[in-house]
Amino acid sequence: MRCVIARFPFDLVKSEVEHSMKGVKPEPVTGPSVTIGRRTYPVKQVGEVITRQDRRDFTAGEVTRALTRLGFTCHDVPAPVPATAPTPFETASALLGAPPVV
Is the pTM of this model over 0.85? Predict the structure, then answer.
């Protein structure tokens, strides 16, 4: 499939993208991501590997559109995990100076 990323044309094939990402350790996901095989990669990391360009040269949207057209599952920014509120027992123990419950 032909697509344009950072004003440069690329001919991308799903199997070639999968092969390029084989053996690449996923970075922590903090923004848009894509699932390739059983791993979830940040979109910018995949874009850098398949285009061999600096991440600052393209947007996550450009890569997301291209990967979606190839048939990969792309995800939006992950929802923040809410912190659990301490139980009344933990609050009382902390106020009394007891060691935290593990």
Answer: no
